[in-house]
Amino acid sequence: MASHNHLHMVFVPLMAHGHMIPLFDIARLFAARGVKATLVTTPANAAAFPKPDAVEIVILRFPSAEVGIPEGVENITQLTEIDHTDKFVEALKLIAEGPLAELLEERRPSCLVSDMFLPWSADVAARVDIPWVAFHGGGYYAQAVSEVVRRDRPQWGVESEDDEFDVPGLPGGVRFTRRKLPSAWTEKEGEKSAHTRMVEAAFETAAERSFGVMMNSFYELESDYADHYPKFIRGRCWSLGPASLCFRNMEDKANRGKQANIDVHECLNWLDSKPPNSVIYVCFGSITHVSSAQLIEIATALEASNQHFIWVVRRPNHDDEEWLPSGFEARNKGKGLIIRGWAPQVMILDHVATGGFVTHCGWNSTLEGVSAGVPMVTWPMFAEQFLNEKLATEVLRVGVSVGADQNCDWLVEEARVRRAEIEAAVRRVMVGEEAEEMRRRAAALKELAWKAVQEGGSSYNGLTQMLDALTSIKC
Ligand code: UDP
């Protein structure tokens, strides 16, 4: 096998947990193949995330004052006002064009790998004359649908938000509504926000100007769309996922992402005390805001469903009385565990006691649910999450929808789904024949996911092919 240890890759994630975590994992994967891997981050993010093994970290200053963002706010999950998003994006551009460009000039790596939502990377890499690989934080299905609606605009061929339209040309006949599409694809010409223009530029630049696109997915999961998607881009395309499977032991899984707000041994002991497939895990990722009214609906539904549960509630600044029915924890002692803040998600999903996952369908969570062989209650909220829901429920058939029907931005806080719907969906994935069928399909996908990342598997080979392609340009 060809050695690739002459290669040096520089990785630049978008500073949001759902984009940083998989790219940190991927940098580890490259380092494990003997490549020199350098990861670029900022002071607050470096302090919050554990350093991946064998990966060099370079810390660049975050230009808070220049763009008018409070000092220490260096991650999208910390933003509390939608207006700050544009300033945040401006800060990322300043980093790329200033200190990142200088770093690349000085180090002359073989390749820059950065998030597709950092489209100015194309210019920075071109200046230093190195290839740029765009990292897509989503799956093939969502990416393919997004490319069709961006280019052909079938969403404007129907009258109302709720009329279904065909997404032409895709395998399997995909139908969708405007109400569920990411907002970037539902703003009319002339009324587009700065954010929408940035998203459009990101898709266009990744498709037209990258040396290739790197996906955190695996071929066997969405093979029809993995075959179709490369038609939309000029460069090449490599599947390297699921990235989370680079963690093989409990300790690594427990420390992935951020320091958990629960003692991991306590969490494991709690799970060990429960029968297989008896716990439903509820978590909406790193960024979604969930209102107190909605949390009360969830609490009531979990209690009524009569299942064991682990429920992650990200409400650092709110009193429990605002969102927790009185006496809830005492009544559910032993039955349920609430984690306030950050949970060791991969560790929990991989535990044999975990039998279901209520998820907002962020791509990482969806893939982690699949990789753990766990059926899902799908509850999408924003961005491309409704597309991931469709993949999970209609294509893979490992999930049931809770019935959310409106794509909105992540800071919108309303109660959208009622307790009865939540309870019914939880029961459907946990008990009965339908649950067993989904569990069987999910277990088969889990096996395929593990095979994909083993030596000789499709994602293992995808990484080799990417290294070979970079070696051939270097030669
Ligand atoms: N995550 C975690 N613990 C938490 C919340 C999230 O480990 O309490 C991880 C999760 O495993 C996933 C990532 O954070 O890898 C969230 O990414 P995703 O794409 O699912 O959603 P986002 O946060 O981007 O909306």
Quick recap of the structure?
With 475 residues, the protein is α/β, with parallel strands linked by helices. The protein has helices at residues 17-32, 43-48, 64-67, 84-107, 121-128, 140-152, 194-209, 223-228, 250-254, 264-272, 292-305, 320-323, 328-331, 345-350, 363-371, 385-395, 419-430, 433-453, 458-474, and strands spanning 8-12, 36-41, 56-59, 111-115, 132-136, 165-167, 174-176, 212-215, 236-239, 279-283, 308-313, 336-340, 354-359, 376-378, 399-401. It has 2 domains: 8-246 and 454-474, Glycogen Phosphorylase B (Rossmann fold); 256-450, Rossmann fold (3-Layer(aba) Sandwich), CATH 3.40.50.
Describe, in plain words, how this protein is organized in 3D.
The strands form three sheets. Strands 3-2-1-4-5-8-9 form a seven-stranded parallel beta sheet, with helices on both faces. Strands 12-11-10-13-14-15 form a six-stranded parallel beta sheet, sandwiched between helices. Strands 6-7 form a two-stranded antiparallel ribbon. It has helices at residues 17-32, 43-48, 64-67, 84-107, 121-128, 140-152, 194-209, 223-228, 250-254, 264-272, 292-305, 320-323, 328-331, 345-350, 363-371, 385-395, 419-430, 433-453, 458-474, and strands at 8-12, 36-41, 56-59, 111-115, 132-136, 165-167, 174-176, 212-215, 236-239, 279-283, 308-313, 336-340, 354-359, 376-378, 399-401. With 475 residues, the protein is of the alpha/beta class. A hairpin with a 6-residue loop joins strand 6 (165-167) and strand 7. The protein is 43% helix and 14% strand. The chain contains 19 helices and 15 strands. It has two domains: 8-246 and 454-474, Rossmann fold (3-Layer(aba) Sandwich); 256-450, Rossmann fold (3-Layer(aba) Sandwich), CATH 3.40.50.2000. The longest helix has 24 residues, at 84-107. Pfam families: UDPGT. Keywords: Glycosyltransferase, Transferase. Its EC number is 2.4.1.-. GO terms for molecular function: UDP-glucosyltransferase activity.
